Amino acid sequence: MENAKDLIIETLKTKASLKQDVFKKTRDVFKLFKIEAEKLVEELKTEMEQIDERVIIDFRDKGDYEFHIKFGGDILVFFMHTNVFDFDKNHPIWKTSYLKEDELKAYCGLINVYNFLADSFKYNRLNDLGYLVARFFLNKEDHYFVEGKRQLGFLYNDFINETINNDKIRNIIESSMLYSMDFDLLTPSYETMQNVSVHEVNEVTSAMSIKTGKRLGFKFEADNDII
């Protein structure tokens, strides 16, 4: 039992302490995401006010682990997970020499980026769907990569060499906005909408609660980049 106790202490010294370090790094980087997002919003707002005042661009700080960017008919929700994650052994990052040197480098903090319709929040449509645009991973050495679609999936995937900084954070935010704007709202299929309850119809006038989403029923993994 004494050996078991020593093993527990040793594991806590390595994994538990490491996870605390990764969490703190991710929280610090998330603060930088907020700073860069707010700066970008102010720049875009200043320029759009000269073009069309009806187009709303806004930044909302929702607490330590969440913020929103509203632009036109879209909202991006940036959400930092409070846990630290390892990767399945089938994940491609395990094939890199970077992790073969030290498996603990695989432990990462996570920031999710979701795209919603702005009206979903405006009208409190609780049934509306958000869409996972990107997942940002950060390890103990500030190395990072992004899982996402199109430019988000190939511009930011050099986990071995890339370390995060303000310019790269800005680029990730801009890429997320560009992808969301190119990801247009499609009319739901006739079959999806042919049955509507009395409750839903009654709620439409107050909260417009009939479920809406850019790709109704689609999952992140199922997207084939068809616009």
Structural commentary:
This protein is an alpha+beta fold. A six-stranded antiparallel beta sheet has the order 1-2-3-4-5-6. Helix 1 packs across helix 5. The chain is globular. The relative contact order is 0.13. About 3% of the residues have low confidence.
Question: What would you say about this model in short?
Answer:
The protein is α+β, with helices and mostly antiparallel strands. The protein contains 7 helices and 6 strands.
Q: What amount of the residues lies in strands?
A: 15-25%
Which structural class should the secondary elements be placed in?
Answer: alpha+beta
Write the H/E string, N to C.
HEEEHEHEEHHHH
Helical percentage = 40-55%
List keywords for this structure.
alpha+beta; 6 strands; globular; 7 helices; six-stranded antiparallel beta sheet; 227 residues
Write the layout of secondary structure elements.
Layout: H1 2-49, E1 57-61, E2 66-71, E3 74-80, H2 97-101, E4 109-117, H3 118-122, E5 131-138, E6 144-148, H4 151-154, H5 166-182, H6 190-193, H7 198-207
Antiparallel strand pairs: 1-2, 2-3, 3-4, 4-5, 5-6
Helix pairs in contact: 1-5
